[in-house]
Amino acid sequence: MPLLYGGFGLVLLALWIFCLLDVIVTAEEDCRNLPKGAWILIVLFLPEVGSILWLLAGRPQTVTRPGGLPYRGNTGSFPEYDRPGRFVPSNPDDDEDFLRRCRERAEEQRRAYREQQRQAEGNQDQ
Prior knowledge:
This protein is mainly α. Helices cover about 60% and strands about 0% of the residues. α1 (about 1-25) runs antiparallel to α2 (about 35-45), α1 (about 1-25) crosses α3 and α2 runs antiparallel to α3 (about 45-60). It contains four helices and no strands. The longest helix has 30 residues, at about 95-125.
């Protein structure tokens, strides 16, 4: 029987610590029914009752996270994408300057690779 009481006590302690930390990290504007400071005091000084009250009446109902799950076809909604004045890329096939720079860079890399191969062959012949 003492083992049962000890286990129950540990569960209550874990619940109290969880709720106390949850109140602390919850944003002020997300707390329901009472100010955040009042919830901290209630959970701190009335551990069992305060924890249950926090879970039922004070904890935010839903947590909205931008983006969601990527495998459900979600493209994501991050604040930096909604920033005014942000450059929105167009179709790369329509951007001649972009395509020209890509071709120049590819040709430069091909030239550098051929030169590297010539040097490697020259070192092997010596």
